[in-house]
Amino acid sequence: MIAILSGAFIVAQGVYFLQQAGLLTGGTTGLALLVAQFTDLSFGTLYFLMNVPFYIMGWHRFGTQFALRSVFVGAMVSLIVDHISHVFTIGWLQPLYCGLIGGLLMGVGMLMIFRHNASLGGFNVMALFCQDKFGIRAGNVQMTIDIAILLASFFFVSPWLLACSVIGAFVLNLVLTMNHRPDRYVVCY
Fold this sequence. Notes:
Layout: H1 2-21, H2 27-36, H3 43-62, H4 64-83, H5 95-115, H6 122-134, H7 138-152, H8 159-179
């Protein structure tokens, strides 16, 4: 549980950097960041609601324990991102740095979460499903989805912010592609 909480906290830090710089990323995180700019709903509310169908998919494919852990992680990320500004604010931002550190933090946090049989929900569940079922690395699946979402956001953000967002998504997925290998893990129950 400590590792899952730590992973959720690290992911939330990464999302916060992206959010504060007006950057996006792929997956349901990117969609929630984008939609939050145009609605009165908070990132956390949008993020959690967008993930509900994927929690159900995770429950059907990976079991109750995986689904419950994933719901917990999603709820924690939602709450932390929505309330982190009460304890941490950023005075000045360089979008390129925020893209790099945001992607790195999210990737490292996701590795921790994946390692402990959970997910952030969203397209991560689909990526893990493809890795489990078809042998396609989760990072490659996630990167393909992320690129599609970022390309679709071209009309909503400036080219510079989009470029920084793409770099952040690339870093996130590079971390996953290079490091997420379930065959390396020893499962102890």
